[in-house]
Specification:
Elements: E1 7-11, H1 16-26, H2 39-43, H3 58-61, E2 63-69, E3 72-78, E4 87-91, H4 104-115, E5 118-123, H5 132-149, E6 155-160, H6 162-177, E7 184-188, H7 201-204, H8 213-224, H9 241-244, E8 250-255, H10 261-273, E9 278-283, H11 297-311
Helix pairs in contact: 4-11, 5-6
């Protein structure tokens, strides 16, 4: 059950800057097809997507490591002074089908600068050109490598949207093994149910200029391949309470003009019922993955809260 201690409205009114940027973004063509009938044309025969390149200035701004796991590229950003006391494994969003966006790099940089942590960003292969198995293998290998040289209890898993799904799914896989576990879990507007089952999302959909329910269902089915999209393996919203009880302390951040706010509320309540230290932070009128708009008050508040979560 949600309670006053499990959900907090951090911003009752959007900042002027957020409103202005949100209006501008709403006038642009969506990066995702919004009609499921357009998805086939969008995916069929497309050129293999490329990740947005890391800004060259990062090479002097941070201590940068370029490496590979499972044949896929990975980038680690350390503070210039050296590895941070905490290490974040961050999975970018993109519906499992789109690569690293250019806006993800400034967000990763802010996390390093403001929190003094190291941040590892896997540049995973995307569907449908590659399987979810490739994505899971990379996530597992990246965590194993970091945990081999860094105290696992000071590793925090994080991700936005589909990347939030990847971070949560990795945490659940690790919990079931009984081996090294991450110390904390942070989720930015996570995609928790690829079937988009909850009809309450229909009330939010007119306010979400990025995400549309029926199109996301189709993307989820494509990514799931031969699996049941409603299974816990594909939609961690439906993980058993026994598995959820194994998760570390968890924090979630979602805007109220984001379709995923509905499942974020449900999931937070389920986590708490399972005995997990969990809390959801909401932001009025904030769009999907608003924290990537780093100059805004809302993004700064998110990073500040994340810092407090790490320090606690």
């Amino acid at each position: 059950m949600l309670s006053e201690t499990s959900i907090e409205l951090r911003s009752a009114k959007p900042s002027m800057l957020l409103r202005g940027i949100k209006w501008l973004l709403s006038k642009r063509k969506s990066v995702f097809p919004t009609d499921p009938v357009d998805i086939g044309q969008f995916l069929d025969g497309r050129s293999l997507p490329h990740d947005a390149p890391m800004p060259t200035k990062f090479e002097t701004r941070f201590r940068v490591e370029h490496w590979e796991a499972e044949g896929q590229k990975v980038v680690t950003l350390h503070p210039k002074s050296g590895p941070g006391a905490w290490h974040m494994l961050y999975f970018h969003g993109g519906g499992f089908i789109l690569p690293m966006f250019d806006v993800h790099w400034p967000l990763a940089a802010e996390l390093v600068d403001q929190l003094g942590i190291s941040v590892t960003v896997p540049l995973y292969h995307v569907a449908p050109e590659h399987s979810y198995k490739d994505q899971d293998a990379l996530a597992d290998a990246a965590f194993a490598r970091i945990a081999a040289s860094h105290d696992p209890s000071r590793i925090i898993l994080n991700g936005d949207s589909a990347g939030g799904h990847m971070a949560l799914s990795l945490a659940l896989r690790l919990a079931r093994t009984g081996n090294a576990q991450p110390g904390k879990l942070a989720l930015f507007a996570p995609w928790l149910d690829v079937t988009m089952r909850d009809d309450a999302m229909r009330q939010v959909e007119p306010h979400d200029f990025m995400l549309k329910i029926d199109a996301l269902r189709e993307f989820g089915a494509i990514w799931a391949e031969d699996r049941d999209p409603a299974s816990p393996a594909c939609s961690p919203l439906y993980a058993t309470k026994e598995d959820l009880a194994l998760l570390p302390p968890t924090r979630i951040w979602t805007g109220r003009h984001d379709l995923f706010i509905i499942d974020s509320r449900t999931f937070t309540g389920t986590l708490r019922e399972a005995g997990v230290d969990a809390k959801l932070y909401e932001y009025e009128a904030a769009p999907h993955v608003f924290m990537a708009i780093t100059p805004t008050r809302e993004s700064k508040d998110t990073i500040r809260l994340l810092g407090e979560f790490i320090a606690a």
